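Protocol step 4 of 6.
Sequence for enoyl-CoA hydratase (Aeromicrobium camelliae) entered exactly as in the expression construct, tag removed. Do not edit the line below.
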Amino acid sequence: MGEYARLEVTDGVGTLRLDRPKMNALDAQMQEEIVEAAREADRREDVAAVVVYGGERVFAAGADIKEMAEMGYREMLAHGHLLQDFTRALAAIGKPTVSAVTGFALGGGCEVALATDVRFCADNAKLGQPEILLGIIPGAGGTQRLARLVGPAKAKELIYTGRFVDAEEALRIGLVDAVHPADRVYEEAVAWARQFVGGPALALRVAKDVVDRGLETDLQTGLEIERAGFTGLFATEDQKAGMASFIENGPGKATFSGR
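Step 5 output, structure tokens:
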């Protein structure tokens, strides 16, 4: 269990908890611990879905600027890989993932949220990529994931200005998927994640992989990726159980083993 990032599992739902008071600044140690927690969540069979949560007051205010301020090109050449490793590890969790955003999700914190499948935010949340105000650009996936999520024009506007986005605007532009009262956002995220407990784990993993890989290529190649994923699931026990249950009992009543 990490000092600043850890995986907590309750009834099949994993919470990847960010916990570096006061603002969850993402220093190198925390980034490394996020990598390990994400990999643990991916491999554990008792985790069906994952909530990423920074606590009641703040999600993550960004990378640790004090740590980076004195770095030169040589140091950042090495450290830059870690900056992307921790968001890549989050995105690579082969299970449904949701961010429960409270307070600030800025810079690297916003990039953490962008690395999950969906984002729920509190009605008091503020999100943004303010790196331009430091004379740099997002470096943990923000330029790429934000553009894919809200479109290139809106992503450029947010990155160029570094301005903060409130919950209402974030929902309107598709940066988040739901807004909840601040004291309910974590519970709502857990409820969303809980629906996948006991679900067809292999089909969920393949669905996520096919969508993500398809976004990186042209339509025809994406269709081939889908075909391969679809046919591969006919080698699973869950496919047999799901279709047999449908024939016998109708939809939505199958019991899956995750195999």
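Step 6, annotate. The mean pLDDT is 95.
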